[in-house]
Predict the structure.
Amino acid sequence: MTVLFVAAGSVSAGDRQQSANAPIVFAAEANSLEQAIPPNPDSVTVGVTVGPSNSLTFSPSSVTILIGDTVQWTFLALNHTVSSGAPCILDNMYCTPSDTGCSSAPTMPLNATYSHAFNQAGTYPYFCRVHCNFGMRGIVLVIVPAITTVTRAVDGHFTVTGTSVRGRSATVKSAPDLMTAFANPQMITTDTNGIFQFDDTSTAGATMQFYQVSFP
């Protein structure tokens, strides 16, 4: 689980504090934002099938995941590999079956699985070493979830906006001060562009509010 913390309202530099589980970094004003992400978030596993219906494809050919997530490939046909790198050019970052000996690693047996965790943001292309020249290629896009803005709406509510993987849910909890536990969990889901927005209708007239946004 990745957890982001943010404060809305006016918070002085002297109010910055550190929690045992992750940094809590506060914005000085509602429209100014800083944040931090704790290391080693729990992994979510995203599935990709290899050679479905005996096709020379990965399905889906492109996946977007959060940093710390794992991709698991399931081999539905024989004579295929997952080999990292730009099309047909090995970079040896990861490969079946054990991330070693990528240039000579054997193809995977039927119904075998291979998993790899992605712990750094970036773009990770891969291909089947046997069928790369036939277009059997894929890509993993690893992103860092983020809170992009904290603003006060015209109606006086604080609004938290952020980005994640599209269709992925997040849980927002709030607290009026640092002495009160985060509570009132609200589930939100990103739109097709991976954007989420939480309108805190309870904060009309409030001068300060603290938020904890957790993924996935």
Observations:
- The longest strand covers residues 2-9.
- The radius of gyration is 21 Å.
- The chain is about 0% helix and 45% strand.
